[in-house]
Design a protein that fits this description.
Six copies of one chain form a homohexamer.
Chain A (H helix, E strand, L loop, with lengths): L1 E13 L8 H8 L8 E13 L11 H16 L4 H4 L10 H12 L7 E10 L2 E5 L5
Antiparallel strand pairs in A: 1-2, 2-3, 3-4
Amino acid sequence: MIYLTRKAEFSSAHFYFNPLWTPDQNLAAFGKCANPNGHGHNYTLEVTVAGEVDPATGFVVDLKLLKDILEREVVSVYDHHHLNHEVPEFAATNPTTENIAVAIWTRLDGKIPNARLHRVRVYEMADLFADFYGETA
Amino acid sequence: MIYLTRKAEFSSAHFYFNPLWTPDQNLAAFGKCANPNGHGHNYTLEVTVAGEVDPATGFVVDLKLLKDILEREVVSVYDHHHLNHEVPEFAATNPTTENIAVAIWTRLDGKIPNARLHRVRVYEMADLFADFYGETA
Amino acid sequence: MIYLTRKAEFSSAHFYFNPLWTPDQNLAAFGKCANPNGHGHNYTLEVTVAGEVDPATGFVVDLKLLKDILEREVVSVYDHHHLNHEVPEFAATNPTTENIAVAIWTRLDGKIPNARLHRVRVYEMADLFADFYGETA
Amino acid sequence: MIYLTRKAEFSSAHFYFNPLWTPDQNLAAFGKCANPNGHGHNYTLEVTVAGEVDPATGFVVDLKLLKDILEREVVSVYDHHHLNHEVPEFAATNPTTENIAVAIWTRLDGKIPNARLHRVRVYEMADLFADFYGETA
Amino acid sequence: MIYLTRKAEFSSAHFYFNPLWTPDQNLAAFGKCANPNGHGHNYTLEVTVAGEVDPATGFVVDLKLLKDILEREVVSVYDHHHLNHEVPEFAATNPTTENIAVAIWTRLDGKIPNARLHRVRVYEMADLFADFYGETA
Amino acid sequence: MIYLTRKAEFSSAHFYFNPLWTPDQNLAAFGKCANPNGHGHNYTLEVTVAGEVDPATGFVVDLKLLKDILEREVVSVYDHHHLNHEVPEFAATNPTTENIAVAIWTRLDGKIPNARLHRVRVYEMADLFADFYGETA
């Protein structure tokens, strides 16, 4: 059993907002992240898949295929887009690092042939990241 | 003569747009960067000052003071803001990495006591950066 | 269940010494780390907390609060201090990367509201780090 | 129980090839990695050992000893060598990142006194790495 | 005048060899780099161009065009190839970091519209790099 | 003319102190860096030499020789030592990043065969570094 991790990047705009709250409540909870003009980040995505090594190739998963899946399912949808305004799963959900990790798990789970999705890690900045392993409470 | 460099970071949204051009011309020139919803980056700023070492302290410039100047003149204005919509110098100028470097030079030049501003370097991403030394054509 | 990780840094002096040993035994066990004048490092701390995402905010834990806790409980005590001489838990215990990880766990465990401390990782240098998950033998 | 991780590096040449396949099949499966002239990488190895902290030293494992073991068992064999042509375990097995992680596990397992080998991580590039924990299917 | 730098990467095999020398002389001069089976690296290339900012775009040079030129002139020729055996300029010249920087300068000089090639930097590893500014003795 | 840069690292303790000043003046000027117990850093040194490429080797300077010179002249003297207490040039001079860069220049200038010392860069942390080119006012 090998765990293989591939990184990808996307640059997106976002802001934090709870429509059930007043502007003052939003500002109190989210500070400068509540600015409705938005700000942005260079996100780094690490996707880990688990599987057995194919003795014919030495691969758990074909890397070109994995890269294409990440591009099609995540990067093309998130990169150079505004997460709140253009990505459906964030229309009514804050695009926090935590929620982005869960959303990417949902986008990828079941799409990678011959391997199991093990972990989605999302860095918002070099000093902050969230991991999701598909665990539900 | 010592050159001292201090880094700072800011996370901002932006997009590229020339109001004299049609939408098709903007798309042709700027590609996915032309998306008017904006996208964003974690920018890294490196500010280099040149000066002589003060024998009483061993400093070219007081680092706390330099950090405060960068915070007041640049980071507080750019960080968690939308460069096109909220930062005056980009109201009618594209916030490209090149133009951001020039704008930060203008914001800092003459503000640092006892040292000469030598270089402003701005990274938009790890694989792209612009340097400005105050040179005019 | 999301695992959120926040980094912090501190720059400290330390050395290794076992008071039950002779100077020669200390030198044999600790080499250049036994120099009683001390040396130092830029330590990087990664603290991982586990919890469920609050649907009102999208957060496992308020990041500003987490940063304040790390600052108050760890960084303000360790940063720009001599670990052997000024930090109580290292008065009679070597400040190795392993022991620093355990000490930071003890400082943080139970202090983070609405989340469980999952892992403390301490880098002494880029090529050496220790992880502690609160496991006792 | 502490998990201690040490990094090491080696620079090697390799290529991918399945001798049971035609050249066209190799090219289809491995693309530019099938070039028999070889290409190369700066590999980064992270070895994690698990154990209890020795109260006399504060160490899980003597770092000088661990470094010497990594040098003797792995780095001296792989570094500045061609993995396919000079390293026995890759004479008939593709030196993929996955297989390198397994091979390094085999080289190290049982060689580290007073600690258990927990994980071998191999980076082929900054955006691709494989983890092996000794798990067999 | 702005200096814009773009990074690219290539993974190649190489070795060092002077055909006028005996094997012993090659080994004495080049050590483990003289191994004729070759070894390899993940090279990082930084190309800096200098020019004035086009007021219509805010660009010194179109980044997509610059990336395409680096890909066509350098990366497609060097990446996943053996520098000694497959790249003409190294048929009789050692592919040292120094010579690679000069060779890439020769490949790029005069090919970048509206900007002057200012510097080619090549990293062989994170702790070793060579800069060439086109200066001849 | 090629500029070749080699990195090295050293981990040292230091503090800032002007013996002509009162404790209050030292605290006002140096803040937490004035703590006489000392703190420490992982310093990164980048040494750049300039020279012509030897056509017989492709080298500006023999890298093994350069590494040995850095080790002998700088690393063995600074690493795992207290700069104020154990390194002669800092007995009466503050070991600031600026002064360390000048001191390393003095240690290396004239010691590297067949190449000219061009620049000494010292990082105290990832976000702060000083460059010295041997320029005197």
